[in-house]
Records
---
Amino acid sequence: MDNHPLELTINGKTYKTAVEHRKTLADTIRENCDLTGTHVGCEHGVCGACTVIVDGKTVRSCLMFAHQAEGCKIRTVESLARGDELHPLQEAFIENHAIQCGFCTPGFLMLIIGAYENDPDITEENLIEVLSSNLCRCTGYQNIIKAVRSASGGLLAIGSDADA
């Protein structure tokens, strides 16, 4: 198959590359842009490990072609920390033992950030419903919920700039 030119804006930086039209956004982010924080799990949009934010909406990047994201602002888990300063949600995940194997963590972080950006007053019931769309085989979700509760005041403080 032929590669076609592609320009993506990820975390405020422009990436110029060439990919087949059928290459997913997840694979392009990882393989062409060297941003490996976005994980690829089921490749069917079920597990949520590949969740990123595209133009303010959470997206399963394994279900989106890279060319569909051209001209959009894409944010990955790498956008959350500012150098050595972790985002409050990342800190809360560590402090509340919401990470075990860590494979699902980037997807959960982006899912939660997206949920709070779209509804800063999200209820716990709605948050639990949102969290149920991602799979975690290690933590049992309770520590993830605890982490979100403890970070809720600072969730929008750092890393929420759509251009970051």
---
Amino acid sequence: MNDPLQDTSSHQRPGVFARLRSSFLTGIVVILPVSLTLWLFWTVLGWFDGFVLPLVPERFKPEQYIGINLRGVGIIFFLVFTILVGWLAKGLIGRSLIRYVESVVDRMPFIRSVYSGAKQIAETVFAQQDRSFDQACMVEYPRKGIWAVGFISTEAKGEIDSRAQTGSRLLSVFVPTTPNPTSGFLLFFPEEDVIPLDMSIEDAAKLVISAGLVYPPHKGVTPLPDQPESAPDHAAQ
């Protein structure tokens, strides 16, 4: 027979301190993402202002007319300047000027290497006709039995593909580091050693940045219904 006093004590409501602690943790979960997002946005605006505004003539700065320094004006100047340069670069005069500048840069040994590398990266990342990554995947790295999340970049070409001793297609895979996915390793795997994932590239990036704490919803195979239990074998009794 159950003790009624014991049942009553087991269903007591949590104390005041426990409720305050639960509310505090809930508030942290709500406030932290919003605060971090606002802080990052505010910091980026300040970085643009500190980099762009010193290059803007004084007569074009808004504080000369309204008396206060508006944060974020630098990014507006940057966007307008970038759009103007892109519009000029599409024209005949702009293309001719770019070719002339590149011909001058080609005569400078060290600057030539820096410029060509930066240009290739910019064209790969920002070109509208190309994609940065094709698909998220899993590969065994740094050894067999240990799996890492990676991003399929392109199919290997040129000397890399011709010199690799593999009988199948060779894929270039970028394996990012945690929690900074901008650094990582460029690895080349045979196609059969690369396991494509159904999750999007954004979800895979969240998984890497969160160090495995944020998993995307998994759409697995629907499990089969439970099989009915077989009738007891009366003959065996």
---
Amino acid sequence: MNPAIDRFLMLAESASGSLALDWRALLEAGGYIGYIIIGLSVLMLTLIMQQLLTLRISVLMPHSLAEQAHQLISNGRFAEANELCKQKPCFLGDMLQAGLSETEMGYLQIQKALEDSSAEHSARMMRKVEYLNVIGTLSPMLGLLGTVSGMMKAFMEFQSSASPSVSEFAPGISFALVTTLMGLSVAIPALAAFAILRNRVDELVSETSLMAEQVFNGYKTWRSRRKTAARTASAEKQNPKGAT
């Protein structure tokens, strides 16, 4: 029998005498494919932690930035609002900068700029989350590859035996199924995290877009005041005080 299988069985039989899973035995039984799956699990955990730290309201759409930008835009101080957004780079800040670049073109152009910026950032964030879907898809496939390879070796050893028995054949099958277990252990949390984080991205993009539109409500107020002041100045020019 394969020495690796012998060691797997030796480590799997714990002091209690019953067959139990030993993680060191599983790692050794997984072989090179097992180490690749372990690498994917480390990458999965890193991505999940990174996204949990990144996909937060305080990081993507700080309320302090929204309040300050709203006040500046309401007073027509667009250059100062743009500088403020540059000093505090975030999802909301980038959206506001896109809108501020269109202030001379009117509110409809500002809305379009906000929508374009929102779509761009949403795609960028989804690309990072999508890696979890890739890991969740590749892991069981790699596990199946390891299992097929192990089963082929087990059948070859079974065929070369003079008088094979089921008890001799079973350890080889157990050995071959280790990579499938490892692959599924990585794929299940990866796909679950992908679904949760994807919904989180959609939620935050929607909330940030709504907040950006609320910030630019001050622009409409400023534009209305400006038009009113222009009409008043024009009326005073046409009818100066003291004219009869």
